[in-house]
Amino acid sequence: MNTWMEEKGTPEGTDTLLQSIFAHISDAVMVVDRNGIIVAVNAAMERMSGWSEDELVGNKHLCEVCVGMATCQEEKSCVDCFFKRAQLPSFEMRLKTKDGREYPVAASSTTLPDAPDGKKVMILRDMSMQQRMEKERYQHKLTHFVIQAQEEERKRISRELHDGIGQALYSILVGLNVLSHGKLSGPMKQHVADIQQMTAKAMEEAKRMALELRPSALDDLGLLPALRSLIKRVEKSFGLTVDLHVHGGWSRHSAAVETALYRIVQEAMTNTAKYAQARALGIVFEEREKELVVTVVDDGTGFDVEQAERNGSGLGLFGMKERAQLLGGSFDIRSVIGEGTTVIVRIPRPKEEAKDGHTRLDR
Predict the structure, then answer these.
(1) CB atoms < 10 A from the CB of 178, how many?
(2) Which cofactor does it need (predicted)?
(3) Between 3.30.70.260, 3.30.450.20, 1.10.3470.10, 2.60.40.10, what CATH number should domain 2-126 receive?
(4) Residue 63, annotated ligand binder?
């Protein structure tokens, strides 16, 4: 590094400053000669590549650390290499490290005008963290749209079940009632009664499915009334005792918040009813100054959370966690085999609500 600085013939004082910048800059710096041989690197380049300065300088060719540059036409190419250009202010290349890994770096290169042998300086910035964050941001956004589309589809199907199929079945049932009061023979009268019973059951099933898909009370009355209705159905269907407690009052919140909390509690209740062999379940709502906290506790058999996630049987847990995180909140589940399960959801309260009562997530 010092030799290269001396060759530059920089004024006294400037030389020391340049050496300090070269040594301490966070971006990796690499100098190569006209043949592509590395002639100087800084400490950041050593850390990024895994090779020491002695291993790189004079011993490595540029192509041994560069796997290819990304262009608009190709993901990775050596056809139009930056090395053929006098200056390229911005491009992406993939750096190959000593241990064989490859990861993206943002790069720029320029030929030193004062260097008689055409030395080229390259500056590299690690992009792996930025790309990972961008990927997570994209996945987060995609998950939001998927959940939003799912809820809209649930609402549509629920409405069609209630207003379409439900009303049609009701009309059939009315017609059968009229028919049953006519002059029918004994066998025919019994046949009509059987069809009446089947139609009534079908109507009840359509109503149940509509409620499961999207309870109208959630949109019309809010989260707590919708949950109270759900609790009654769960208690009736599974013989489970459910206690709902509300601390600190509970006001209406945005559709996104109420829908997410309803689905999380619904999933927790369903899991408890179907798999936990529990006798009782408690739900606690707390409306605090800066956050909403919902806790669901059961006295069931419990399970191994990590094992469920590894085996892929924790998709319901993943969905609950995603819904909480989409609202900037957290989802925590604690379970011990033989000691029950506790689910804790925390959702930060928005600083300000839009005029229509929806947060940005609803728009």
Answers:
(1) 9
(2) [4Fe-4S] cluster
(3) 3.30.450.20
(4) yes
